[in-house]
Structures are given as C-alpha cells and as structure tokens.
Specification:
Blueprint (H helix, E strand, L loop, with lengths): L1 H11 L4 E8 L6 H9 L12 E10 L2 E10 L6 H4 L8 E7 L3 H18 L6 E7 L11 H11 L2 E4 L8 H13 L2 H27 L5
Parallel strand pairs: 1-3, 1-4, 4-5, 5-6
Antiparallel strand pairs: 2-3
Helix pairs in contact: 1-7
Length: about 220
C-alpha cells in the first residue's frame, strides 16, 4: 500500500488547478464521444452511458497545468434523478446538442438549462453550448446562427464541433478552462482542491511510512 500512496503523491500533485466539468444533453448527442476524443486519440461509436461516468484529463492551458475531472451524464429521462447531485461544485458545464436533431437543441432551453439553474451550486459556473456532429453538414437542421443566439440568451460560450473528425473538440475544453480561470471564485476553488489533495497525500504518506504507529 505504501508504494501506491507514494506514486500518487509524485504524480498526483503535479498540477496547479483542479476543476470539475459536467457534460449534459439528450441521449445520443455525442457527449461520451466528445469526452473520449478529448481524452484519447481514438474516435469511437459508444453505447449510451448508464447513469454517470467520469474521466480525468491533465493538460496545460494558459501557462497552468490543469486537472479536469469530466463527468459524463446519461441523457435518458430514467437516469435524470441520479444527476442532480453531480451538479454540486461543478466549475464548468457543457450543454451538448446534435446539429442534425432539432429536438436535442430545443431540449437545451426547455430541459437542460432549467436543470442547470435548479441544481448548479456555483453562481459563477461557466457554461458552454456545443453543437456536435458538424461533419454531417448535409443533414444539419440547426444553423450556427441559432446556436449563437441561444448561447447568448443562456449566457454561454459557444462552439460547434465534431467528435468524429476531432474538429474543435480540444478548443471546447480549453476555452472553457480559460474562462473558468478568469473567475476569481472558481480559480480559488481550483487551487483549494489541489491544496486539499496534496495535504491528503502527505498524510497518507506519513501514515504509510510510519506504519501508522506514531503521530
């Protein structure tokens, strides 16, 4: 057990800020695909998420090393009750729709934006509207201008992207992270999370190296 704690402490504290990001939107809009494309180099067709999944990505943006814990929530109605607690403490929320399915766009304002208002605990939380699947341009039913207008109405950042071709996927998370870093309260939360983590690792290390017998 000791070696596990020590290996965590050397790599685990190797970032300046830690943020929690949430991906929300209807089932099938490509939330999991966006996440997998961002995390790895593969592009996959994925089965619907059951409940909630999360992944961690370490990357550098704006001269800071960031640890993003990205929560991928199920879009289906029957899992909706599971998600309310996952809004707690999120510094960034990405609302995803499919540019080829109008109802997924309509539901952002009718369902998801209301849910964010209801459950989000961070007043300064940064929101981003993302239109996915722009690689299917011939099937598009939601125009870019409509996306821009809704983002303005909801007070969100806006990007169109494609998980399949990787277009704008990294920019989506980078722009969100940069905007979060501009909010003093969120920056403070991100720093505090790192400090708490380092403190916890030091305590674990002391316990494992002393065998837990001495204080």
């Amino acid at each position: 057990m000791a070696s596990i704690g020590q290996s965590n402490s050397s790599s685990g504290s190797n970032y300046d800020l830690s943020f929690k990001i949430l991906l929300i939107g209807d089932s099938g809009v490509g939330k999991s695909s966006l996440l997998v494309t961002f995390i790895s180099s593969s592009v996959e067709d994925l089965a619907p998420t059951i409940g909630v999944d999360f992944k961690i990505k370490l990357f550098t943006v704006g001269g800071k090393r960031l640890k993003l814990t990205i929560w991928d929530t199920a879009g289906q109605e029957r899992f909706r009750t599971l998600t309310s607690s996952y809004y707690r403490g999120a510094q960034g929320i990405i609302l995803v729709y499919d540019v080829t399915r109008r109802e997924t766009f309509t539901n952002l304002s009718e369902v998801w934006a209301k849910e964010v208002e209801l459950y989000s605990t961070n007043q300064d939380c940064v929101k981003m509207l993302v239109g996915n699947k722009v690689d299917r341009e011939s099937e598009r039913v939601v125009s870019r201008d409509e996306g821009v207008a809704l983002a303005k109405e909801l007070g969100c950042l806006f990007l169109e992207c494609s998980a399949r071709t990787r277009e704008n996927v990294e920019q989506c998370f980078e722009e969100l992270a940069l905007k979060i870093m501009e909010a003093p309260s969120l920056l403070e939360e991100g720093s505090s999370a790192v400090k708490r983590n380092i403190l916890k690792q030091k305590q674990e290390q002391q316990t494992s190296s002393s065998g837990g017998c001495c204080s």
